[in-house]
Amino acid sequence: MSETEEPPVLFERDGHVAIITFNRPRVHNAINADMADAIEAHVATVESDPAIRVALIAARGKSFCAGADLKQVSAGFGQPVKARPGGFAGFVYARREKPWIAAVHANAYGGGVEIALACDMIIAAEDMAFTLPEVRRGLIPGAGGVIRAARFLPRGIALELVGGAAPLSARRAYELGMVNHLAPADRVLDEAKALAARIAANAPLAVRQAMRLTRAAADVGDAELRALQEEAVEIVRASPDAAEGARAFVEKREPSWRG
Q1: Domain residues of the chain, as ranges?
Q2: What is the pTM of this model?
């Protein structure tokens, strides 16, 4: 246990619904290796337990998730966060058949946006925003952020999000179809639970199979896109700018890019 007396990720059940809650509020729920291990284990529990029909991902604190813990990355401990079958946080590429809903009550950044986009549905606070700031740190959103943003958003909006690191408001994301429902911040989890309950009331096998087909229709070509993504990530990660971005963040200064 690190900075709190509680685990960094909480797990609870509410009938047929599982709720996974990020619990490192003092560091904006930045994902470290311990969190990724816990998330990976909870995903396995959800997917293997027939009593669980729907899963929610929520968070405590002033941010939904700030992405990877750059202090851990800068110290050389970033690999355990990424090098796992489920991808970043043990989640973004994890094999999942059941419906997953992101309850995004506050701003999401980087890998936090990628976790939300990896879910099947998003409930977002009316006043929050999604930001992919990786290019400011000499990186790219390499955990599905670029690919999924391009699928869910018009081309120009996606390019601005990933290339300009411009925040995308939840309201605009809702208008464009990336977010399912908006709610006041203190009602986001309740709205997500209500949606989960509606889904859980339906025939579980029928839901899984219907969702499998829906995902397949949207994800044609995913393997090829992921291969291109991995190539781009390795090219960027090997550059001096990648290390400089993390150092500048930790040292609280503007980065000096070498290109």
Answers
A1: 9-187+198-217
A2: 0.86
